[in-house]
Amino acid sequence: MESYKKEFIEFMVEAKVLSFGEFTLKSGRKSPFFMNAGAYVTGTQLRRLGEYYAKAIHNQYGDDFDVLFGPAYKGIPLSVATTMAYSELYGKEIRYCSNRKEMKDHGDTGILLGSSLKDGDRVVIIEDVTTSGKSIEETFPIIQAQARVSIRGLMVSLNRCERGKGEKSALEEIKELYGFETNAIVSMYEVVEYLYNRPCQGNILIDDAMKQAIDEYYARYGVR
């Protein structure tokens, strides 16, 4: 496992973004783990988060893109932080772009924030986590309506590795439906591999009992 992935797992725990216990998800599933990207709230956390996204994007897509698109609302700070980090780490200026939930009809008008999109742009979409693909369903037509762009792929922070609407993961469903690559900084399988019986922030977060709960959850909902 790449070192930035190990660091990112530690970072999620440190920032209290990734928790273990018993949680009821929006889907109604009872999950032994939960990710709350809204817990990234400080300047230092956002700077580090942008760096991890930038490293993962560079690892998966290289420099072959022009724009980072962050769907409103959580994608807005992600796209800003990551474009800044990408410039610092790799010396390439990437434009950020996000959508508004409501059309603005005065001042800085339109549906977009940040950069406009133009014909020929290569776009990477950036999100926190994807469980159903609804955000992409909403933003894909917005992107396509702005210009003739090519979408290089999607990057999320954590792949939960569980079924979406059907028998495949949400990321696999998005890939099949829209035809672009989907990736994550880390997968939940990598998280489990790294944290199992290993101290993190002074605690064993995945002991034998938690590992069993996670295994049972994936026996019911998981995909590889």
Question: How is this structure best described in words?
Answer:
The chain is α/β, with parallel strands linked by helices and 224 residues long. The chain is 41% helix and 26% strand. It contains seven helices and ten strands. It has a six-stranded mixed β-sheet, sandwiched between helices. Strands 1-2 form a two-stranded antiparallel ribbon. A two-stranded antiparallel sheet has the order 9-10. Strand 4 and strand 5 form a beta hairpin. Helix 2 packs across helix 3. The two termini are 17 Å apart.
Identify low-pLDDT runs.
Answer: none
- Please tally the helical runs, counting DSSP H or I stretches of 4 or more residues: 7
Helix content, binned percent: 40-55%
Chain oligomer state: single chain
- The secondary-structure element order is HEEHEHEEEHEHEHEEH
Q: What distance separates the N and C termini?
A: 17 Å
Largest sheet: 6 strands, mixed
Main β-sheet, spatial strand arrangement? 5-4-3-6-7-8
Question: What would the average pLDDT be, to the nearest integer?
Answer: 92
Structural class: alpha/beta
- Give the overall silhouette: globular
The rounded Rg comes to 18 Å
Q: What is the number of strand segments?
A: 10
Range of strand content: 25-35%
